[in-house]
Amino acid sequence: MTSVETLAAGPLFGLPLPELWFALVFAMLGTFLFLDGFDFGAGAIFATLDDDEARETVLSAIGPFWDGNEVWLVVFGGALFAAFPSVYANLFSRHYLLMFGILGALILRGLAPEMYEQRHDERWQRWWGRSFVAGSVLAPFLLGAFAGNWLAGSPRSFTLVGVVVGVTVTALTVVSGAAFLRLKAQSALPESVRRIGTGAVAAYLLSVILTLGVLAVRLPAGVDALLTAPVIGLVVASIVLAGGYVVTLRRGSNLAALAAAAGLTYGLIAVVAVVMYPSVDPAANLTVADAIVSTLPLNLMSIGAALLLPLVATYFVVLYSAFSGPISAEEAY
């Protein structure tokens, strides 16, 4: 057989590529939610700071990272389109208002710090500071609403499930943001940042409980969809990680606290994926097997992903290595 015929004959090396791509799509979503999540959380914490120097410190901490972190949203959308094009089309057509809202919030979050630094009169900075906070809070809330509606198979953009998941995701970004700011700024920010992180992780756990309760009512399978070993294990792991986050944040082990926040983020995305599987678009009754592209493009995409994703990961290793360590007093956004 020719190489094309070989690639079209079956999955590469007999791998379960549809399931692997399903997991990869959610892993990319989790990576975006964690990496850009601590930027969102820093923006929310920005609202609690009255001191100009402290606000400049927040902007300096996220300055080298936020635009690079958003690459993962593009990667997530590209992977979803490439592997499950019908799901991509369905989701973005059903929830186009949410999509525009997310994009608008991201634009506002990116534009506001740039404008904030252009002038230093009080009224100007107050306006753009509020815009920065609004974009930082709205983006994760709307992203969470999108994920909640996707999981519940809702054809509408604004639902109870969407609201509770949006609140959960927003609280989670504040958890990540507090750990990141403590890691990068350390004593340059007030102790209130640590207290905000501790309060946010408690709010996150309460929101998770509320989310599970709403899903138990709204999902077709009801409670049975949630009372599975993987979901119970992930919830228990989240409680343990939340406890570890509080302890490490109080002890000043900020890198460990940020790692715990990463675990909470990927755990939340894993719950969504586990509850949804084998469906990939509940509203359209599409399973992973139904929605995946044909064998030839699937194999070609898998080869491409195996080559390109390590390069993307290497870029982020270089980026975070170049800007590792605490920020200095003279650094500016």
UniProtKB/TrEMBL annotation:
Coiled coil: none annotated. Pfam families: Cyt_bd_oxida_II. The keyword S-adenosyl-L-methionine does not apply. This is Cytochrome d ubiquinol oxidase subunit II. PANTHER family: CYTOCHROME BD2 SUBUNIT II. NCBIfam families: cydB. It is found in: Cell membrane. GO terms for cellular component: plasma membrane. It comes from Halobaculum halobium. Keywords: Cell membrane, Membrane, Transmembrane, Transmembrane helix. The chain crosses the membrane at residues 20-49, 70-89, 132-152, 158-181, 201-221, 227-248, 255-280, 300-323. It is a multi-pass membrane protein. The lineage of its organism: Archaea, Methanobacteriati, Methanobacteriota, Stenosarchaea group, Halobacteria.
